[in-house]
Give the backbone structure.
Amino acid sequence: MAESSSVQSLDRAFDLLELLCKSRNGMSIGALSAATGLHKSTVHRLLSSMCTRGYVQRDTATSIYRAGMRLCELSSFIMDNLDVVERARLPMERLSRETEETVHLVMQEERDIVYIHKVESDRGAIRMFSRIGMRRPLYCTGVGKAILATWPDSEVHALWQESDVRPWTAHTIVSEDAFFHELERVRRLGYALDDEENELGVRCIAAAIPDYRGRASYAVSVSAPISRMSDERIGLLRGPLLSACDEIASVLGGSMTRM
């Protein structure tokens, strides 16, 4: 009986904590009581316990409660302990088998993307020149555009100004206005394209892996010779790619908002 009561208290505490995490301006005991159906004395008892441990903070002037910074501290430990490559490995392998193409996982580091995992396709004799640890600018890759599309325009503008923007191929976008137009397209479609902008003869479709804030530092791409990447084929690859990214994002605590 005591165990059942403890589990019930724990459930109630999590209900309160989740409400506070989603509240922009915090909530009073009365508001929390009304939202959960719990008695005010129960809400006060649970909040007091969570305040003691730093999960909740109380504004002494207004008696408004907010989620505490202890949650952020713990989330940083969780993220530090996540092996992104290991979590992405199986979805990437399934994606490569399903599409019969090469699949890349990259991470953003300053103004570049860095290749951190690759599943090579056995189809055909052509091999991508990419390798683990290789860097490329964010602006000239599909994965980079997918990542930047999740950032605020002000940060993208700052990054563009700091980058050594130059044509890697004749197809590289080197106009800031054109680049922002391209990002709007990425946001609308939910995926980005690399139309020989980084490597001649290769076309890629890429999608971001956003974190819990909707901001991405990782992305996945499907790459192939341009002869196998018609617009029609891109349309067929979109679904499997977004599904794989959704799966990886869910494991990493992120959420997808594809249209």
About this structure: The beta strands are 56-59, 64-67, 102-109, 112-119, 135-137, 192-195, 202-210, 216-225. The longest strand covers residues 216-225. The two ends are 47 Å apart (CA to CA).
